[in-house]
Amino acid sequence: MQNKLKTRLLIVVFQILVSGFFAEAREISGIVRDAETSNPVEGAIVLIKNTDKGATTNVEGYYNIRNLSAGSYILEVSALSYRTFEMDFEILQSDTVMDIYIESEDIVMDAVVVSARQRSNTENAIMQIVKTLPQVASGISAAQIARSPDRVASEVIRRAPGVTIIDDRLIIVRGLSQRYNNAWINGMTAPSTETDSRAFPFDLVPGSQIDNLMVYKSPSPDIPGDFSGGFVKITSKSVPDENSIQAGYTTGFNVATQFDVFHIGEGGATDFLGFDNNMRTLSKDFPEHLGAVNNPDEITRLTKEGFNTNWKVRNIIPVPDQRFFLTLARRIETKSNRTVGNLTSLNYSNTFKSVHKMKNARYGIYNYTEDTPVYLYDYVDNQFSNDARLGVLHNWSFVINPSNRIEFKNLLNILGRNRLTKRTGIKDVSSMYYYEQTEIQYSSRLIYSGQFSGTHELGDGVWGLGNRVWGLGDRVWGLGNRDSHAPNPNPHTLNPNSPNPQTLNPNAHTPNPNSPTLSWDIGYSFASKNEPDRRIVVNYAGIGNEEDIPFVTTHNDNISRYFHNLYDNIFSAALNYRHTFDNIFLSALKTGFYGEYQDRDYAMREFIYRYNKLSYEERQTYLSLPFAEMFDNRYLGADKVYVDEITKKTNNYSANVLHAAGYAVFEIPVNNLAIYAGVRFENRRTKLTNDRSMNPAITLDTTKIINELDWLPSVNLVYRFSERHQLRAAYGRSVNRPELRELSPSVYYDFDLFSEIGGNENLKTAKIDNIDLRYEFYPALGETVSLGIFYKYFRNPIEWTFIDMGGSWRYSYENAGKAVSRGIELDVRKKLDFIGLPALSATMNVALISSRVHFEPGEVVSEPDRAMQGQSPYVINAGIYYASEKAGLNISALYNRIGKRIVGLGKSNVPDQIINNMVPDSYEMPRNMLDLSIIKTIGKHCELRCSIRDILAEDIVFKQFPKFEKDNAIYKREQTTKRFNQGQFVSLGVSIKY
């Protein structure tokens, strides 16, 4: 009944949205242009005299006035430094498109150089960019982020059509797991801190630092070819429009966290800044491998002094979350008419989160004879996390003149997490044990991204080829500029050859979007992940059955310590050139080069404590102590309890990658059809080195070199029926290369999975063919309806799988034979003034996706053909926005739901896929999320903000669906592998801007 009600509600909302497009209201729209230059005029006021109807032109000079009845009107257009223009016009039984040319005032002004750049941080601007891009794309602006409770990029990006997030930081686009997506920050490769995943962690970028976020879904020669789901371009905020200073403070809490006891390991003095102050690290004189030390006195010293011996666990009531930000914006106009802009922003947060009574289980092959599940692990976890985030954005922009611009952008983000997990439950592998485990973990992740970049118009007449505004209504592609001129079925235009031409200033310069343009980028990125002293304490005791648990005595039988470090350095450079031709067959050529050098070092060390020197009686006493007391110096020594290193050197690796890419793309106009076609080549050389020696005293470095050359053709077509209707079609080839971590033999123990994760040095690069078809309708400024379909064919797709190590699992990666993915995407953004609610607007995007992976015969898998990992059958995003400028009030309610998606892969014990011998796949179950944000402006300078995230607070549930055959019938069962509740997040904030 509940599902039927939800379905009916969705149908009603959709009908309301769609019905507005067929309403009988008339409208007038068009472009206001300069009579002398035909350039669009931004900020012109267009009024219908004697009414309350009007509009202001956007960056493209476009205006739109709706809800007009048929009849005669007087139109008035005014703009700064232009003469006011009036004319009579008539609206009949259809919408009117009317371009207007206005004259400059006959005033000779002092020399002024005007530099203009298309905005990209408003919803209307993003919609125009998406509309004019040659690729299939979606976008989110800073203005949209500001109206939501989303704090980091991973929360922001899930509002885009067909995008979901996993593990709170990694993205899935069009049902393709994180490995099939790519990310750039400010035009350069985004560094990653993920040691066990080919992905960028989007939780490291605060939403407040983002100017816009674009998701490209179809390949093209001028963007990297290593993606198939989505290529994400994050652009940070840049030159301000005015001088300002803004500061804000937000406090809040998680309902499941704030009012309960919080357990956490002892921290260091700099934990609140997001990094360790060497409190947890090994001593500076610690040897490269403890196995090479034979002196008992030295072993005793290192056991006592080589490690942090503070194992205290604090029990606290957490303070409410704290968040601060400070932004300084400076814009300097020099005497030589140059502009220097600086934007500096500082973000900080300190938050707490608890997850109580998380069910965390693993099942074996279902017991079909007794019709009962078989538990291998049945645990309950209680997890406590304290996160400290520090973010700095420091951007400079130098506008030398309208044709030359140089930028220097810097983005630094740190996330430090102090986490403690308490686990209790049963492990039943070969025999039954009761387990109590504690993990104390501190991790610090850091990314830095810096770029020098420049854009230069080289002037007219370069190479003597001239320039030309081409096809599709004088549309200009390439650098994000667009000069649109809509077909005018009802022309009422001021004659551009007016007898009163503009008085030109010989020192003024109007940027020409058709000039040959050169852009360049030089970048450096750095990423690090530091896990100093991850501690795991395991207590267990043998039991006959669950009824024995209250009577067992556990001991600290196994104590281990792990140290992990990842350092990634990326140097990159790019050069792009675009030239416009005066040719009926070719409008423009765009070509460029991208080069990148990546250097990575990954090192881990593992230690355990040995008790074999203790007598049986001493051992029983010692192991019964609380672990916080076990590291008193009186118990430690080479003849008592000592530390032993069990590091496998094969788990460490170093690598470097040299990547070079070049491309050429042609812009070809054929009447109303625009063709954006070309080819990209990418050459990649990967060198990976690790020490395969099992002896600490011997080095046996082994190097593997992989050379790849890929030619990636693509074509993007746009057929424009009118200013508001267009059809896209695209084809492109892309690749999905194994990540360095996936190619290395390194093995990492994941406490959450209670399993190891290892690489596969025999992985092959996947090749993907991508096809898109999308229809787009733009009813009015700020509104859109798009409906698209896509199809993808994979050769050698890379999937996550596991190996049964005799009771324990090791997750790894392998190539399947082939895969296909197909889907439908609908995106609707609509103002609700057509039903008498001018302050309301609504958005909804829905994606329906289906995929199948085909394995080679004989593969040991749970199903011979199944959905790709991470793929949801559907994704729904919806939002209702209320905005009242008069009341200074903005309210948004945002809804998100994903379908059942496969997250853990099953296997069969035999290649024949006998149904009764299968471990089934694991799925994340559907869940409804509802967020609410309220923003109230007080006066000119103050803003209050209240938000509630995840109002419904439904359980997050993972399940398996085992099948078995019995008595010639097939049965299906359900078993829960994980269940927990995050609770609601409530926050209240204030910001002041001057």
Write the layout of secondary structure elements.
Blueprint: H1 2-19, E1 26-34, E2 45-48, E3 54-56, E4 62-68, E5 71-78, E6 85-91, E7 96-97, E8 100-102, H2 123-132, E9 137-141, H3 142-146, H4 153-157, E10 163-166, E11 170-173, E12 182-185, E13 188-189, E14 210-216, E15 231-236, E16 244-254, H5 255-258, E17 262-265, H6 296-305, E18 313-316, E19 321-333, E20 339-363, E21 375-401, E22 404-429, E23 431-457, E24 517-542, E25 555-580, E26 588-610, H7 616-623, E27 642-645, E28 653-670, E29 673-691, E30 701-720, E31 725-736, H8 740-743, E32 747-750, E33 755-758, E34 766-777, E35 784-795, E36 798-804, E37 809-815, E38 818-831, E39 840-854, E40 865-866, E41 874-884, E42 889-898, E43 901-904, E44 907-908, E45 918-919, E46 922-924, E47 927-938, E48 942-949, E49 956-960, E50 963-966, E51 969-972, E52 975-980, E53 985-993
In short:
This protein is 6% helix and 52% strand. By secondary structure, the chain is mainly β.
Would you write up a description of this structure?
The protein has a 22-stranded antiparallel barrel. Strands 9-14-15-12-13 form a 5-stranded mixed sheet. By secondary structure, it is mostly beta strands. It starts with a helix and ends with a strand. Helix content is 6%, strand content 52%.
- The N- to C-terminal Cα distance equals 53 Å
Integer average pLDDT: 83
| Low-pLDDT segments, ≥5 res | 4-24, 106-117, 460-513
- Morphology: globular
Number of strands: 53
Biggest sheet architecture: 22 strands, antiparallel, barrel
